[in-house]
Amino acid sequence: MGASIAVSIAIALFAAWLSSAQATPTCDPFYFPYNTAAYYNGGDCGTYTLFDVGAGCMADFATARLVCEFKGLELAPLTEDSKGAFQALVVDNNFTAWVDDVEWVDQGEEGRRCGVMTQEGYLVYQGCKQTVRFVCRTKDANILELIKDGFHNRLYTVDATERLPYVSADAFCKALGAGWGLVPRSDPRGLYACQRLCADNAYTCWMMREDGDGQCPLMDARGDLQLQGCEQDVRFVCRKKL
After folding, report:
1. Interatomic CA distance for residues 212 and 63, integer angstroms
2. b/e per residue 130-155 (b: at least 16 CB within 10 A)
3. Stretch 3-15: mean pLDDT
4. Which of 234, 229, 233 is nearest to 198 (CA)?
5. Are 177 and 101 in contact (CB under 8 A)?
């Protein structure tokens, strides 16, 4: 697998050099003819695609996310399952690439740091405006997503295989990485997201428990908030600030 990826990347690099020697296309990241390399990851059954092997139109973090979405994909996060894909596509080729991860060191846009996989295989957080390569992956059709009002919201799951008791749902969201958690029921933006992802599909979903809640809050299939027993298996929405 690693050898075949290396060969395909070498071919892509030559093609990029040849095309640049003939004519340099305008760098519109949404329509640029990227040279890519793909890796099928058995860990999560996803296909990971490295964009811009030839470094012809590298992107900042926000643009990389948008390009992935534009192509029906998502910017790949770094998880236990995805480590092999980043190793094969990025580290083994001495590349640097965006990872779908953000940390906040201060308020405002200038306080945001975005995840980068280094050539040495380390995840570091750097300024989000630099341009580097990026890795997109296929989306899980079983997870509904809504990106709105500065938050990334994910419903687990359409087929109800991830229905969990409240404590397990809360732990699941937090395990997605820094900044992830259940949606607060007191946040109007969170209520809107759960209305779209849950109630509009006649789903019932957990929301974040708050001080004073004797039981656990959920949005029912009609869009009403209720406090119910915490041990029942229910869908849930995780979110993270972008």
Report:
1. 41
2. ebbbbbbbbebeeebebeeeebbbbb
3. 54
4. 234
5. yes
Q: Percentage of residues in the chain with pLDDT exceeding 70?
A: 87
What does the block give as tokens for 205?
A: 């979903």
Contacts of residue 236, Cβ cutoff 8 Å, sequence gap at least 6: 155, 156, 162, 164, 169, 172, 173, 182, 205, 206
Q: Between β-strands 46-51 and 235-241, what pairing exists: parallel, antiparallel or unpaired?
A: unpaired
Cα-based torsion angle of the residue sequence 50, 53, 59, 60 in order, rounded to the nearest 10 degrees: 70
Euclidean distance between CA atoms 161 and 141, whole angstroms: 13
Q: How far apart are CA 128 and CA 125, in angstroms?
A: 9
The SS3 assignment for 42 reads coil
Residues shown for the chain: 242
pLDDT greater at residue 117 or residue 10 = 117
CB 156 within 8 A of CB 235: yes
Q: What is the pLDDT of residues 194-230, one digit of tens each?
A: 999 999 999 999 999 888 788 999 999 999 999 999 9
| More confidently predicted of 64 and 24 | 64
pTM for this model (two decimals) = 0.57
pLDDT of residue 221: 92
Tokens of 224: 């009403």
Ordered structural domains, the chain, with CATH? 2-138 (3.10.100.10), 144-241 (3.10.100.10)
Q: Residue 159 has what DSSP assignment?
A: T
